[in-house]
Design brief:
Helix content: 25-40%
Number of helices: 5
Strand order of the largest sheet: 1-6-5-2-4
Radius of gyration: 17 Å
Low-confidence stretches: 1-17
InterPro entries: PQQ_CXXCW (IPR022376), Rhodanese-like_dom (IPR001763), Rhodanese-like_dom_sf (IPR036873)
Largest sheet: 5 strands, parallel
Shape: globular
CATH class of one domain: Alpha Beta
CATH superfamily of one domain: Rhodanese-like domain
Protein name: PQQ-dependent catabolism-associated CXXCW motif protein
Organism: Puniceibacterium sediminis
Keywords: Signal
CATH topology of one domain: Oxidized Rhodanese, domain 1
Number of strands: 7
CATH architecture of one domain: 3-Layer(aba) Sandwich
Strand content: 5-15%
Amino acid sequence: MPRLAVWAFGALLPFAAWAADEPAEYRMDEFRAPVPATLAGATVVGPETAYDLWQTGQVAFVDVLPQAPKPAGLPEGTIWHEKKRNSIPGTIWLPNVGYGALAESYHAYFREGLSKATSGDMDHPVLFFCLEDCWMSWNAAKRALEYGYTTVYWLPEGTDGWALWDYPLEEVKPEPEPK
């Protein structure tokens, strides 16, 4: 079948047709892969619904895109530039909290970041995202549910889907990570 025909056929299939099954546990590797269409306990939203929630100003948006650390042992005088992140305006960026296993310092970092984003209210709505087909946001949303957050949204298309709708993006800086 020609490539265009395959793409056209695939474009007609619902998202769930190529989504992964929802696992019982956290995703531990291959974080850039098709994600499930569901997350037990959370509400899965698309970019249009996320935009509506964003416009209310009543939902905390949490970006969990990972960020590579500055390499240790760089020669003196080496210039290191952090990769810029364009994200949803008003977002708190908590990099590296979407891995399947977290060190205790990152659990504390994640909890502190969520508390900051929600003013310490476990019932405050919170929406997690990363990029399209990124398990980091699925893992982070699942973890927030386990921490006791009651109103959790997950945007599987992340900033890729948000940008596709031409919704605004702005450069964000990550919350300082634990050392």
